[in-house]
From TrEMBL:
<dbReference type="GO" id="GO:0000287">
    <property type="term" value="F:magnesium ion binding"/>
</dbReference>
<keyword id="KW-0460">Magnesium</keyword>
<dbReference type="GO" id="GO:0030976">
    <property type="term" value="F:thiamine pyrophosphate binding"/>
</dbReference>
<dbReference type="InterPro" id="IPR012001">
    <property type="entry name" value="Thiamin_PyroP_enz_TPP-bd_dom"/>
</dbReference>
<comment type="pathway">
    <text>Quinol/quinone metabolism; 1,4-dihydroxy-2-naphthoate biosynthesis; 1,4-dihydroxy-2-naphthoate from chorismate: step 2/7.</text>
</comment>
<dbReference type="Pfam" id="PF02776">
    <property type="entry name" value="TPP_enzyme_N"/>
</dbReference>
<protein>
    <recommendedName>
        <fullName>2-succinyl-5-enolpyruvyl-6-hydroxy-3-cyclohexene-1-carboxylate synthase</fullName>
        <ecNumber>2.2.1.9</ecNumber>
    </recommendedName>
</protein>
<comment type="function">
    <text>Catalyzes the thiamine diphosphate-dependent decarboxylation of 2-oxoglutarate and the subsequent addition of the resulting succinic semialdehyde-thiamine pyrophosphate anion to isochorismate to yield 2-succinyl-5-enolpyruvyl-6-hydroxy-3-cyclohexene-1-carboxylate (SEPHCHC).</text>
</comment>
<comment type="pathway">
    <text>Quinol/quinone metabolism; menaquinone biosynthesis.</text>
</comment>
<dbReference type="InterPro" id="IPR029061">
    <property type="entry name" value="THDP-binding"/>
</dbReference>
<keyword id="KW-0808">Transferase</keyword>
<keyword id="KW-0474">Menaquinone biosynthesis</keyword>
<dbReference type="InterPro" id="IPR004433">
    <property type="entry name" value="MenaQ_synth_MenD"/>
</dbReference>
<comment type="subunit">
    <text>Homodimer.</text>
</comment>
<comment type="similarity">
    <text>Belongs to the TPP enzyme family. MenD subfamily.</text>
</comment>
<keyword id="KW-0464">Manganese</keyword>
<keyword id="KW-0786">Thiamine pyrophosphate</keyword>
Length: 580
């Protein structure tokens, strides 16, 4: 029997429950975990030295797989470095299984190396923390470890999904000798049965009655993955029932005639009279966070009479401060049933839909006007600035590819532009905590898990903050990195508060003179640097073509010019929508 047979059994149990991917940060105390994972024939393991990057790479993989990915690190401060990724996974509801090696509690605060307080170290940012015993002499300890592992894996993938932590104290010796038997199992798998969502008939009756009594209805979609079934039923409801459907770029609602995606443009300029015409009687939301600040402010200041949130769990969030009904249901299934039931009732009673056509047209007309404004503004090639650069990049993205947008200005620019339906590009962004840390690592993790072209669109500060994403041998050839280098945190020059402060240059923008070229060379990436629209057009001609290595495109802009152009756009919005 191996020294740490319980660790072998833990890994075997994970495999039996469908976990096949693990990201491992090297360390000595975690050696039993590393060897147990690396030697299992059904487990794919990858080594990432920087724990902060490792956590986000695992997050990017789990985001694609929709299954827990295992993350392993050694004891001590290494564990703390996983915290940003764990927090992002928690709020973005992405399943991770965090396995942290630890010294036995006997050695805490005894001046021994790499020993800190690891029990429940992630606090409320995990669904639950477990800790295994350090000794397994008694049969109850083995039973406990097996039960905990079953519970932890199931908990990570139960709605709302999220990270689960198992802290594992390990005694020396940590490394097996050649005389030991290295055998997995046997283990006992406890199957968790999931139930299909169901609402009581009387609840459905109340929902249908409330629906029918609301003349003006608005459906708003928050952040979520591309969901063809959801898009299909929303298109049907928009077309047949004349209901406006709106969302952000991170909602994966495409830009088309059915959906409104330019909320941040026109809601920043409409007057109070028009705002009153846009207020719904019934607001129906699903998905996670909304990116558009103007949309959030609009609904907080003009609250609907009723507000339903549709989601597959009961965790309550009320970002518009108007929630009246939380409905635990898968959104696509809910809308399909709602449409089917109401459509049948109207057929039986020979009733026509009494939706307000004028209400939908108000939303659509403003969205069309905003789309034209943005298009005309960005076509102007007299000034080289980063938003116009991003629009040209979006237009060049390969069909059925993925776009991973970093936080700060890139995700806001993408949201203001939107993506055309025919491109079929899936959009991802770390909007759980909305930090700049880990944006590149997440894209690396995604590219490891899909054959699609994965484009990481990232600003210079976020890139340099996370360039250890490339400090490994994992960077796949389907990854494309576009670095928007304006040599500082440009968002602080654009938003009102810090832009008016005399400390802007010294303490907010974090000006830096670096180029990404050396990082690209270190990572063996194909690198191109551009300074103009002409150079950008030439570079994009073959940037997305397949090859043997990943590619990086660095685009140099002037942050002061970027800020000036954005202010020009804001004035154009005010001039266009004033009085509407």
């Amino acid at each position: 029997m191996a020294i740490h047979q319980h660790v072998l059994n833990l890994v075997e149990l994970c495999v039996r429950k469908g976990l096949r991917q693990a990201i491992i940060s090297p360390g000595s105390r975690s050696a039993p975990l590393t060897l147990a994972l690396a030697r299992h024939p059904e487990m794919t393991t990858r080594a990432v030295a920087d724990e902060r990057s490792a956590g986000f790479i695992a997050l990017g993989m789990a985001q694609q797989l929709r299954q827990p990915v295992i993350v392993v690190c050694t004891s001590g401060s290494a564990v703390y470095n996983l915290a940003p990724a764990v927090a992002e996974a928690y709020f973005q509801e992405i399943p991770l299984l965090i396995l942290t090696a630890d010294r036995p509690k006997d050695w805490t605060h005894q001046q021994d190396g790499q020993t800190i307080y690891q029990t429940e170290i992630f606090g409320k940012h995990v669904k639950r923390s477990f800790e295994l015993p350090a000794d397994f002499i008694h049969a109850d300890a083995r039973w406990f470890a097996e039960r905990v592992t079953n519970e932890a894996v199931d908990l990570a993938r139960t709605e709302p999904r999220g990270p689960v932590h198992i802290n594992i104290p390990l005694r020396e010796p940590l490394y097996p000798t050649g005389e030991e038997t290295f055998q997995y199992g046997p283990v006992r798998v406890i199957e968790q049965v999931t139930a299909a969502p169901a609402l009581a008939p009387e609840t459905w009756h109340q929902i249908q009655q409330e629906w029918e009594t609301a003349e003006r209805k608005l459906i708003a979609i928050g952040q979520g993955p591309h969901d063809p079934a959801l898009l299909a039923i929303l298109k049907k409801m928009s077309d047949e029932w004349r209901i406006p459907v709106v969302g952000d770029a991170i909602s994966n609602l495409p830009r088309n005639d059915e959906f409104g995606t330019q909320l941040d443009v026109f809601l920043g300029g409409t007057d109070e009279e028009m705002n009153k015409e846009l207020v719904p009687d019934l607001l129906i939301t699903c998905g996670q966070s909304f990116l558009s600040k103007q949309f959030k402010l609009f609904l907080r200041n003009h609250q609907p009479r009723s507000h339903w949130q549709i989601q597959p769990h009961n965790r309550l969030a009320d970002p518009f401060q108007s929630l009246t009904r939380l409905i635990p249901y898968e959104p696509a299934a809910f809308f399909e049933k709602l449409f089917s039931d109401i459509d049948y009732q109207r057929f039986v009673s020979n009733d026509d839909d009494d939706s307000d056509d004028h209400f939908q047209e108000n939303w659509r007309a403003l969205d069309r006007k905003a789309t034209r404004l943005v298009s005309q503004f960005l076509k102007d090639d007299a000034v080289f600035h980063e938003w116009a650069v991003i629009q040209r990049i979006l237009d060049a993205l390969p069909v059925e590819s993925q776009l991973h947008v970093a936080n700060s200005m890139p995700v806001r620019y993408v949201n203001l532009s939107g993506l055309a339906e025919q491109q079929q590009v899936e959009v991802f962004a770390n909007r759980g905590t909305s930090g700049i840390d880990g944006c590149l690592s997440t894209a690396v993790g995604a590219a490891l898990t899909t054959d699609k072209v994965v484009t990481a669109l990232i600003g210079d500060v976020a890139f340099f903050y996370d360039r250890n994403a490339l400090w490994n041998s994992l960077v796949p050839p389907n990854l494309r990195i576009i670095v928007l280098n304006n040599h500082g945190g440009n968002i602080f020059r654009i938003i009102d508060g810090p832009s008016r402060q005399p400390e802007l240059d010294a303490y907010f923008e974090t000006a830096q003179p670096l180029s990404a070229e050396n990082t690209a060379k270190d990572a063996n990436l194909v690198y191109t640097n551009v300074f103009s629209y002409g150079e950008l057009k030439t570079a994009l001609a073959d940037f997305f073509t397949t090859g043997d290595s990943a590619k990086m495109l660095e685009i140099q802009t002037d942050r002061r010019v970027n800020a000036e152009q954005f202010q020009r756009y804001k004035q154009l919005v005010q001039d266009t929508f004033r009085g509407i």
